Amino acid sequence: MTDTVYTLPDLPYDPGALEPHISARIMALHHDKHHAAYVKGANTALDKLSDIREKGDFSTIAMLEKNLAFHVSGHVLHSLFWTNLSPDGGGVPEGPLADVLDETFGGFPAFRQQMTEAAATIQGSGWALASWEPVAGRLVVQQVHDHQGNHGQGTVPLLAIDAWEHAYYLQYENRKTEFFDAVWNVVNWVDVARRLAEARGTATA
Ligand code: MN
To answer: pTM of whole model > 0.90?
Structure first.
């Protein structure tokens, strides 16, 4: 029996709410099938780790730990991705978030370009993340491989762009930069700003 430590969150809007930028069919498949598979995989990995612990036979632990990292990270990043998007999103960030982007990247256009390039140049599957790096206390752009590789330990993702083919192929085929351009039209800057404030430990006011 599989534990249900992880559960699939509902999309915070209808699957068609982000059209024409992201099609209803992509959103439904992406959430209901792909994200659901990562939730199931995370629970299965925990369940199998429990089994081998009970049996005292750890011969499969390396594979299971790899599976756990992959599926939990997939669950975390998709949960983030859905809330990073909104039918009321787009435009440009304002307030403290805009100030941080100015200070760190020289402005929103340069930040947007770096994120888009990070997403577009992934070899294989992955994500572009804007993350808070708590040691230096600054924002960084990260190019994550699969769901977990090439990721800075301890960083807090604030904005995630899914660059897996399943995120765009049904609508944009091989024109993935058109998908990334479309994503910027639905980014929920209120959500990103709230996550930045939480990561910095500051008030949102
Ligand atoms: Mn995905």
So the answer is: yes
The helix (H) or strand (E) run that includes residue 150 is: none
Position 197 pLDDT exceeds 80: yes
CA of 34 to the centre of ligand 1 (A): 6
Residue-range domain boundaries for the chain: 24-84, 95-200
Looking at CATH, the fold of the domain delimited by 24-84 is given as: Helix Hairpins (1.10.287)
Residue 105: pLDDT over 70: yes
Compute the distance from residue 167 Cα to the ligand 1 centre, in Å. Answer: 5
171 Cα: distance to centroid of ligand 1 (angstroms): 14
pLDDT at 205: 43
Whole-number Å distance, alpha carbon 105 to ligand 1 midpoint, is: 27
Radius of gyration of the chain (CA): 18
Rounded to whole angstroms, the Cα distance separating 118 from 13 reads: 27
Predicted pLDDT of residue 201: 86
Fold of 95-200: minor pseudopilin epsh fold (3.55.40)
Specify the pLDDT at position 4.
87
List C-alpha distances in Å: 70 to 42, 63, 76, 145, 175.
8, 11, 10, 10, 26
